[in-house]
């Protein structure tokens, strides 16, 4: 596995590095750390080129901290200080050129401890990336686990929605991890069925089918679980799920996403806001 980590010399950057370290230990991954400094275009004033060199030098100093954290956790670690107009575009281009399996970033640090707040870099990636994006929740670096031990997939029950289960199965099988499939049920979805009881029956049937799919794909998995979380709202349903420090949640893209690209839908956005676990958002299938 190859990880590309988008790094900023901030607590947000530390959260992303901590998640990359846990993923690297779990999957035996090679890691490229990427720090992007602003491109200083000539404007006729002297000293612009020297200032660009200073930014690159500072970037090399900052990125050394991330490399130190990842040394020993990853199979190999490389530092990359790049110049570009857009952090997200430059990061994505690098990850594509190096055929990365995951882009790893931290979220914004606004608001309360825990959970996910989408910053400008992660927002841009979550509406354009061709590569799965792993997001560390706020404060993840304060008490990050050594390894990932379980994968949870937020599976849909409605035709046309992108299903992250195949990707979750691939992750789980790569490191012999337990896997959990979750279907979220709320009264907000009543338009899909005559009443909540019928909707729950639909969701349970979908969860059971997903369990059968996982059982066939992972016959030697130590644990396979499929469950339905209910609530009046999506947020209240999420609160009924228990998360361990070693969990990772996988979600799919919106049905409106272009093939092989990520587009974060409203449901996935609300899941991110209500989840303390790291989240991997995957591009829409073809």
Characterize this entry briefly.
With 286 residues, the chain is of the alpha/beta class. Helix content is 36%, strand content 22%. It folds into 2 domains: 2-142, 3-Layer(aba) Sandwich (Rossmann fold), CATH 3.40.50.620; 150-247 and 264-274, Rossmann fold (3-Layer(aba) Sandwich).
Describe this structure in words.
It is a single chain. The protein is α/β, with parallel strands linked by helices and 286 residues long. Helices cover 36% and strands 22% of the residues. It is built from eight helices and ten strands. Strands 3-2-1-4-5-10-9-6-7-8 form a ten-stranded mixed beta sheet, sandwiched between helices. It is elongated and about 70 Å long. The mean pLDDT is 85.
Keywords:
about 290 residues, alpha/beta, Rossmann fold, ten-stranded mixed beta sheet, 8 helices, about 20% strand, elongated
Number of domains: 2
Shape assignment: elongated
Strand order of the largest sheet: 3-2-1-4-5-10-9-6-7-8
Biggest sheet features = 10 strands, mixed
Helix/strand order, N-terminal first:
EHEHEHEHEEHEHEHEHE
Considering DSSP H and I runs of 4 or more, what fraction of the residues is helical?
A: 25-40%
- By secondary-structure content and strand pairing, the structural class works out as alpha/beta
Query: Tally of extended strands?
Result: 10
Mean pLDDT: 85
Topology:
Elements: E1 2-6, H1 11-27, E2 30-38, H2 48-70, E3 76-84, H3 87-97, E4 102-106, H4 120-125, E5 133-136, E6 150-154, H5 165-175, E7 178-186, H6 196-217, E8 224-231, H7 234-238, E9 247-251, H8 266-273, E10 279-281
Parallel strand pairs: 1-2, 1-4, 2-3, 4-5, 6-7, 6-9, 7-8, 9-10
Antiparallel strand pairs: 5-10
């Amino acid at each position: 596995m190859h990880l590309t980590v988008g790094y900023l010399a901030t607590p947000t950057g530390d959260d992303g590095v901590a998640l990359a370290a846990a993923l690297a230990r779990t999957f035996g991954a090679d890691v490229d750390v990427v720090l992007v400094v602003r491109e200083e275009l000539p404007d006729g004033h002297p000293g612009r080129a020297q200032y660009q060199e200073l930014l690159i030098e500072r970037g090399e100093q900052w990125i050394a901290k991330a490399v130190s954290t990842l040394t020993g956790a990853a199979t190999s670690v490389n530092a990359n200080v790049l110049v570009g107009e857009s952090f997200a575009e430059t990061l994505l281009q690098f990850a594509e050129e190096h055929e990365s399996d995951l882009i790893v970033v931290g979220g914004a640090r606004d608001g309360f401890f825990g959970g996910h707040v989408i910053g400008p870099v992660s927002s841009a990636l979550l509406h354009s990336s061709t590569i799965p994006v792993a997001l560390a929740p706020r404060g993840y670096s304060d008490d990050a686990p050594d390894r990932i031990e379980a994968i949870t997939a937020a599976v849909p029950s409605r035709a046309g929605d992108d299903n992250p289960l195949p990707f979750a199965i691939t992750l789980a099988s790569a490191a012999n991890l337990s896997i959990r499939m979750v279907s979220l049920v709320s009264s907000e979805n009543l338009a899909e069925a005559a009443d909540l009881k019928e909707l729950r029956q639909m969701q349970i049937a979908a969860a059971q089918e997903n369990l059968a799919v996982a059982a066939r794909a992972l016959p030697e998995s130590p644990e396979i679980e499929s469950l339905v979380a209910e609530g009046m709202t999506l947020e209240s349903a999420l609160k009924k799920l228990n998360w361990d420090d070693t969990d990772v949640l996988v979600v799919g893209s919106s049905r409106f996403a272009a093939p092989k690209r990520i587009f974060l839908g409203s449901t996935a956005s609300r899941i991110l806001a209500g989840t303390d676990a790291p989240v991997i958002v995957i591009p829409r299938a073809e």
